[in-house]
Amino acid sequence: MVGSNARYARYVAIAVFTLAIFYFMTSPDHETIPLQRPPSHPASRPPGSEVPPSHSPADEISPPHRKESDDQVTLQKPSHDDEKDFPLAMSPMDPNWDDDIVGLARGPRMNATFVTLARNSDVWEIARSIRQVEDRFNRRYNYDWVFLNDQPFDDTFKEVTTSLVSGKTHYGQIPQEHWSFPEWIDQERAKKTREDMSARKIIYGDSVSYRHMCRFESGFFFRQPLMMNYDYYWRVEPSIELYCDIHYDPFRVLHENGKKYSFVLSLYEYVETIKTLWDSTKKFMKNHPEYIAADNSMKFLSDDGGETYNRCHFWSNFEVGSLNWLRSKPYIDYFESLDKDGGFFYERWGDAPVHSIAAGLLLNKSEIHFFNDIAYYHVPFTHCPTGEKHRRDLRCHCNPKENFDWKGYSCTSRYFEVNDMEKPDGYKDQTK
Ligand SMILES: Nc1nc2c(ncn2[C@@H]2O[C@H](COP(=O)(O)OP(=O)(O)OP(=O)(O)O)[C@@H](O)[C@H]2O)c(=O)[nH]1
Ligand SMILES: [Mg+2]
């Protein structure tokens, strides 16, 4: 008995020794470290705050469902790079242009997040969008992603989205006061509007939830607790497509150039949904002339010096913008003035014209940016950069014939004219 125990102990010792030798011979000469989000731009974080922010009852963070091994990556130094050492390269002509776009991008990170408003039932449509955003951009930047919903997110939604996002994910439930009728709304009048719009087959005309969504996106998403510690956002909707590689950090473009709002597609709003929006805006302008920017984009919004609205707006299902601008007093005062007038419910004001009019009037022209390099689709419109070399450089897969920019129903041509921008070669071939 004693003899067999000793033999058994010898076998164990030999096995341990052999395993140890095997481990040292085969282990890679690089380390692995826990997956870490590269630090945000240190200067842009509010003092004393760290992401994720404190959790109110409405907030949740990503479920701890990832396997331990998912949190290990091959050592790749998180970026502490200073922006001076890694100047933004915006075109292949720039010395720092990264043609390979492999591995984590060098350069600083901004204090920024993606943000998506969605229902649990949108899970597969948003999964598709996330995959595109990650493949074309975020896999090299690992920015966070905030998901907001008027209902609690279910486990499937959280697990699917967390598995796709390379940064941290956060899930928030919207408080009821941001997703309901304000007390001053006359319910009978609101109901009559919906019935009337429904009879006239106006898209989403009969929908209460669509109106809550538009009001929420106009006035509340940027003040949710989960959004409060970020400076910049990039809005992503379900079922969008990105058609070109994104070689530089759009958040950094905004930050370094003093931009507050950006777009890729612009068009005319459906007049039936915003009949009195401009009257409300004019009232606001009269009450607050001090808020109107000296070098504003009134010419983009109006063809008669502000008397009437030409219905041009930036399409807000894509936006990269400054949260601090949306949280500023001029913007909040504008939203509250519109909200009091009731047009989110007595008509069907969309957040796109609301954001666009605000950007056009409260910001200087230089603070609005057109992201030509971000090729994008949201049903039914496409932005596909004009110019074959440009599309090849960015490895785009969009059909240039589908580019909406220069078509008659787009306002992008007008935007170029108002901003004295030169239209790209070949734009005339895409007008029809
Ligand atoms: N949580 C929640 N999200 C919503 C609701 N309605 C719309 N959304 C989200 O709000 C955003 C805009 O809604 P969409 O239905 O895409 O509106 P749209 O872009 O004008 O119209 P589509 O052409 O249908 O895309 C999307 O991200 C939706 O997922 C809702 O009732 N609850
Ligand atoms: Mg949509």
From TrEMBL:
Pfam families linked to this entry: Glyco_transf_15 (PF01793)
Top-level taxon in the UniProt lineage: Eukaryota
Listed transmembrane segments: 7-25
Keyword Membrane: yes
A single cellular component GO annotation: Golgi apparatus
GO biological process: cell wall mannoprotein biosynthetic process; protein N-linked glycosylation; protein O-linked glycosylation
Family annotation (SUPFAM superfamilies): Nucleotide-diphospho-sugar transferases
Chain segments carrying region Disordered: 33-92
Signal peptide (UniProt feature, chain positions): none
Keyword list, A-Z: Glycosyltransferase, Membrane, Transferase, Transmembrane, Transmembrane helix
InterPro entries, alphabetized: Glyco_trans_15, Nucleotide-diphossugar_trans
Sequence ranges of Pro residues compositional bias: 36-45
Gene Ontology MF terms: alpha-1,2-mannosyltransferase activity
Family as reported in the entry's similarity comment: Belongs to the glycosyltransferase 15 family.
The protein, known as: Putative mannosyltransferase involved in N-linked and O-linked glycosylation
Origin organism lineage: Eukaryota, Fungi, Dikarya, Ascomycota, Pezizomycotina
